[in-house]
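This is your field. Pick holes in the following sequence-structure pair:
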Amino acid sequence: MDIKTACIHCSSPELTAGPVVMPIYQTSTFRFRDFQHGTDLFAGKSPGYIYSRMLNPTVELLENCVAHLERGTKGLATASGMAAIHTLFTGICSAGDHIICSESVYGPTAGLLQNYISQLGITSTFVDSSNITALVEALKPKTRLVFIETPGNPTLVISDIAQIAQVCHQKGILFAVDNTFASPILQRPLELGADIVIHSITKFLNGHADVVGGIIVVKDETLYTKLRKALNHFGGVMPPFEAFLVLRGIKTLALRMQRHCENAQKIAQFLSKHPKVSWVRYPGLPNHPQFQIAQKQMSGPGGLITFELKGGFEAARRLLNATRLFLLAVSLGGVESLIQHPASMTHASMPPAIREQAGITDGLIRISVGIEDVDDLIADLGQALNTV
């Protein structure tokens, strides 16, 4: 079925009779059918639902739903996007292994690699993943995983997924893509050759700024089993109530993404013509450095815009304090529009050298365009820019 239909019907229970909406299985444990059935655990067999940290019907429907939208085999829902990333890194890699990561990446992801994963004897290298030559040169004999964000956070650098997948597969290296900024509506990395997809479910998939969560989607059943065991032991699983809310959010995902794209395109065009703006980066503008790659692998440019003001940090401060509809807050992907300053907010925990390498300057501003009336949003940015 078309993905717009799948958003609605894959988030509903597959029952011949019963509820249209999946119930919340708000239980910590499940009753065994009988003792003999329970002893399957000792034989290495699964007797079904046992304990909600291991598997829960509401959470499992969400996992299957997102896996279907991403054209994957199985999903693993987690308590946050960072729980998903931590489970991926530590579930796959061990001491002596090496990870290549996009330099334009969520700040805490870089901090996790540098400050904590490194303590396990796992090294990492940050590269401009839009430059395939730089990525190939960063490969080492012990490179186990290539992890990229595309579009990258916050600079919206776009990397060629199919090209990187080809390099990784030739070397026998696993390839993971953080698809949070695009959502499966606009981009499906597994279809382009990636092995793993990550989402912060907090963002577009949920879409209403009331859930924190993450998900891992894989193509390979063996990889799923390995990561499921790791997640069960780490314990960073998603609770059933949050899964219920995300399932509800996914029903409108296709509609919301269409409006996010339409609004962001008009706002990016407005900002690109404004005399107080130095530059605008948006995948829907032809002057984006990787515009052709975006056209090839994305079905829409998304709801995120990055731009820099001519007045640097002081100009950014004035703008951020003057918007009324654009709420000053971190995060993204909700129905409401948000504005923030990456260098001091979402990427403050990123090591300064990597932040500078990624081009996250003090004058950089990131906006997440919501689904409000676009003329109201442009008017709000216009009056705020008048204060600069």
Notes: The two ends are 49 Å apart (CA to CA). Residues 253-385 form a domain with the Aspartate Aminotransferase, domain 1 fold (CATH 3.90.1150.10). The chain has two domains: 3-250, 253-385.
